[in-house]
Design a protein that fits this description.
Length: 297
Amino acid sequence: MVSSHDFQEDKRNKKIKIYVNGKYYPRDKAKISVFDSSVLLGDGVWTSGRIYNGRFIFLKEHLDRLYKDLKLISIKLHLNRKELTQIINKTIMINKMQNDVHMRIIISRGLRSTPYQSEKVVISNPSIIIIPEYKKPNIDIYNKGLKLVTVNTIRGSLNAQNPQINSLSKLNCIIACIEGHKKGGDESLMFDINGNIATNNSTHFFYIKNKCVYTSKGKYQVTGITRQKIIDICKNNKIKIFIKDFKLKDVMQADEAFVTGSFGGVVPVNAINNKKLKLNNKNLTYQLRNWYEKLLK
């Protein structure tokens, strides 16, 4: 079984420095309080991206999403974008990192005086954790592709737990992921509340029919940075792209399919449920991946 997040093991990760609330710690010493909101309630947001040539790729877009999500869950970060950017860049510099690096930025509501939901028991500034790791995607995922399976766990409504927020509360996606693995899939293809295909448990979904690219309206999924780059690539290269609602029956007529994410970029799909999809280097999927990779240089 493969995953869009498969990576090559790297011994250098044993010596990385992790940022936690103003200090840097060796990997095995980096810890957070049991009273932190992230531990008690999964109360916070995160973003992650790749480092190329010593810089965080698409940092503006990632910070746009991060600060939007913070606002949506009423966390006021004590650092502005410039200050947070400086910490991100310092983390890269301290670790002397250049390429094949994946960085996760986590912000929780902060320490609580007791295990309770109310924000009134928060007694600190928001907690900030930055984890940089040497993580090069496993080339096998691009050659073999992924098998997607549909699952019963759906993406909820905006007024339940807003699926557009990249929150630390990932139970919905975790349950979908486990359900998909039990069905023999690599990732889970999830429906929205209206029975349309929404997204995968950890990546964004596209399919191709007659050289036209299709993706959902995005209402029931996390705002996707890589997803938007692919939409832009299609438009810039005069490839027809349709951002619309569609059903599983439409997907099952696809010629190709792929998923997108900040770690793996563009990853082809080899099967959806029992439908097999042929992979070869002439597929539009691989052309889109090549165009996307050029944006990273």
